[in-house]
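Expect chain and fold; see below:
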Amino acid sequence: MLPLAVIGNVNVDLILGPADPWPTPGTEIMVDYDELRVGGSAGNSALTWEGLGVDFQIAANVGTDQFGEWLQKEFGSRAERWPVAPTGTTLSVGITHPNGERTFFTTKGHLGALSWPDVLATLDTNRLRGGYVLLCGSFLTDTLVEQYDAVFDWADANNIRIALDTGWPIAGWTEANRVATHKWLSRCHCALFNEVETTRLANSVEPADAARKLKALMPESAIVVVKCGPDGALAVGPDDELVSVGAPLVFVADTIGAGDVFNAAFLAALAREQTLQESITAGVHVASKAISTVPRRYDSHDLETLPETAL
């Protein structure tokens, strides 16, 4: 299996809800559910790899408080070299709604302090050669983003393929954010966006057309994946052929981080040198299982034995 790593945002998620109706300012309501857990795109993807029994590295940072200590403990030896930023740990409070939607309140916290020297000191480059690195949380890791050219240079020099999932920009897909992302994609092997992100970024209505527009900005051997939620996923590969897979009908218990779970399962399948069709099938299968189980359950068998209906 090819080596895997993730670079980006790990923070604390406090999930509460459901809230209905939205409370009037100055009042208090009671909710039925709460959960304190590891969050952030990098954190969610890393936990998925751990659940799937896949070996990986993770480069992240934490704040100088009890939340930071807790995050490091959750990742054990993989977090031993994580830097501690001189600020509080980023906390994201997610309020769920009866219709499955959610609203997030997030503190700025430690994420913006993560730098390329921090990342480089955390990763074992020799062990990553020839593998895949998932780069995520772009619009939250301000310092690292300014040093992305160094990240791409390092990847090129060590035969490492970068898979990019920027997440949704706080300011939306402004022209400046589009230009920056197009530049990053020109040096990435794989793009992993959801349907709305893809169509907004490419200024195209149809996801497949948008995927092809983004692929035209990338190296010839690149892959563009579009995560379509309940409709499954599609991808355009190096040969420009479009492949797709539908999602099974499941009872939805918790969709938070579903795209990050997909990313992890998809890249794990690619790292096992499975086909693009098999890889997006793995992503959809594991993400569907994740959103329909509380607590989330998946293991190595989910990569080895996929339901025939998903292929």
The mean pLDDT is 92. The chain has twelve helices and 14 strands.
